[in-house]
Amino acid sequence: MLMSRPTVIPRTSFNKGKLEYIHKTGVTRDSKMFKYVAAMETIQEKVANLEKFGLSEEEIWCLCGKCPILLTLSVEKVQRNMTFVLATMKLAASSVLKHPFLLLANLETQIRPRVDLVKRVFEMGMKPLVEDVSIATALRMSEKRFLKVYVMCHQEDVGEELMEFYEKAIKT
């Protein structure tokens, strides 16, 4: 995905400080991704943003090495998603280390509606088709699979109510 943004960092602007920051991301010099890592100031800003949520610099570099596309996300998007993960989902900040898609996914059209539907299913005393599915797994499912596991497995009237709830959650 980073390869779709070739102008993020000019090839001629590699100074020693920038090379150190890029090295910390874990992206190697011979990697095709090397030239697509963001500008040093941007990297510093994004690292500082994640540090505000309690992640150590070492954890952030590890995260960026696993998922370099995080460096292309806006500070605002990361703040919105992290705030939701911490406040609404009640997950630890370190959960994004294991599940970086929590920062990548669209909060309004994917994360929030799915989290709300999963909560609704359990509030109604219902269970998903597959037991012991973590919320992280539910967020990674395809739309078809997610609906099958959480909506279509219930009686028709309950399934319709859940589907209406989910569709409203996506639109709002």
UniProtKB/TrEMBL annotation:
Pfam families in the cross-refs: mTERF
Keyword Transit peptide found: yes
UniProtKB keywords: Transcription, Transcription regulation, Transcription termination, Transit peptide
GO biological process: DNA-templated transcription termination
Repeat is among the record's keywords: no
A Gene Ontology term for the protein's cellular component: cytoplasm
MF-aspect GO terms: nucleic acid binding
Stored PANTHER family: CGI-12 PROTEIN-RELATED, MITOCHONDRIAL TRANSCRIPTION TERMINATION FACTOR FAMILY PROTEIN
Protein family: Belongs to the mTERF family.
Annotated protein name in UniProt: Uncharacterized protein
